[in-house]
UniProtKB/TrEMBL annotation:
InterPro entries: Epimerase_deHydtase, NAD(P)-bd_dom_sf, NAD(P)-dependent_oxidoreduct. Residues 3-225 form the NAD-dependent epimerase/dehydratase domain. The lineage of its organism: Bacteria, Bacillati, Actinomycetota, Actinomycetes, Micromonosporales. It comes from the Bacteria. This is Epimerase. One of its GO terms (molecular function) is aldehyde dehydrogenase (NAD+) activity.
Length: 333
């Protein structure tokens, strides 16, 4: 199969690129810089020079869109991700380019469009222990997630012609090569700001980047138009039991970290966020309602639909993923 991929030089997209190439697909991947093009080439992909923001500039559309006439499927994994900022930033940088790319794929009669969304579309006012695709998502408590849900909704009501849209919702992505998110935890520990909420006893769910890549390969030719699936490692566990060994792969010990009761942390997070917004801070405060939702509330994602409709079974276990990360860190020293 010939596939057009966005985000192929990034953490998640890079794993998707490697998996697709290893499975024998020809992958044309969007590259907005020479560095990105080199990374795509090294992984066996064919770089396509361009930027998603080209899609929202005045004019008839960027020249690189011509590649859509040559491919069978589009995998859209690229996104601007941040835990802070107004909705409009994410509308401009994520929703509008995604909608334009989808419409271009429909016009080009691409058979399949796989959208990487986010499980956090239901992280906010939904306080359920376990959610699935039929759960009321409620209202997400960060703009990134609110706009992700809006993007899903807008694409699903657009005319789709011969193009089938499948939406994949992973939660916290982790694995070898993760940098930004893990570094945020490390910085917090080294600055003395890291604390568990309620002793780290709340359940968290997560998805190894290779498991995301695997379900995307399944979604290339399975699932009806409009299918939405959560995807995880199928191994939720208390936050302490996941993040302690995860950070240990980088030599960071949080086993004796302090703990703050959620009853204290939650109102403090709301106060800090309100104050930061009032002064129009460009950066998030150390504690936000998002962190409370993630680390101080039980959340499991039911992946039954992914198993039944796409034939998904996790391709890599948590233990194997941690072993790979620890080995990579040791060899990189």
């Amino acid at each position: 199969m010939k596939v057009f991929l966005t985000g192929g030089s990034g953490f998640a997209g890079g794993a998707v690129l490697r998996r697709l190439v290893n499975d024998g697909h020809t992958v044309h991947a969007l590259a907005r810089s020479a560095t990105a093009a080199d990374a795509i080439t090294s992984a066996g992909g064919l770089p396509v020079s361009g930027d998603l923001l080209d899609l929202v500039k005045p004019g008839s559309g960027p020249a690189w869109l011509q590649i859509l006439g040559e491919v069978d499927a589009v995998v859209h994994s690229a996104a601007f991700m941040a835990f802070w900022g107004p909705d409009q930033v994410f509308v401009d940088r994520n929703l509008l380019p995604t909608r334009a790319l989808y419409q271009a794929a429909v016009d080009a009669r691409v058979k399949r469009f796989v959208l990487v969304s986010a499980a956090s579309v239901s992280t906010g006012t939904n306080h359920d222990h376990t959610v699935d695709e039929n759960s009321d998502t409620g209202k997400a408590n960060i703009a990134y997630s609110r706009v992700k849900l809006r993007t899903e909704q807008e694409l699903l009501v657009l005319p789709h012609g011969n193009t089938s849209l499948v939406v994949i919702r992973p939660p916290f992505l982790w694995g070898q090569g993760m940098t930004h998110t893990l570094q945020g935890f490390i910085d917090s520990v080294e600055a003395g700001r890291f604390s568990w909420i309620d002793g780290g006893r709340h359940m968290v769910d997560f998805c190894h980047v290779d498991n995301l890549a695997y379900i995307i390969t399944l979604a290339l030719d399975r699932g009806d138009h409009g299918l939405i699936c959560y995807v995880t490692d199928g191994s939720p566990r208390p936050a302490r039991d996941f993040f302690t060994p995860l950070l240990a792969t980088r030599g960071i010990d949080v086993s004796a970290a302090n703990s703050v009761p959620r009853a204290v942390a939650s109102p403090l997070a709301t106060l800090m966020q309100t104050a930061a917004k009032a002064r129009r801070s460009a950066t998030a405060p150390p504690l936000t309602p998002w962190i409370i939702s993630f680390m101080g509330r039980d959340r499991v994602y039911d992946i039954t639909r992914a198993r039944l409709r796409l034939g998904y079974q996790p391709a890599i276990t948590v233990e194997e993923g941690l072993r790979q990360m620890a080995l990579s860190h040791t060899m990189g020293r």
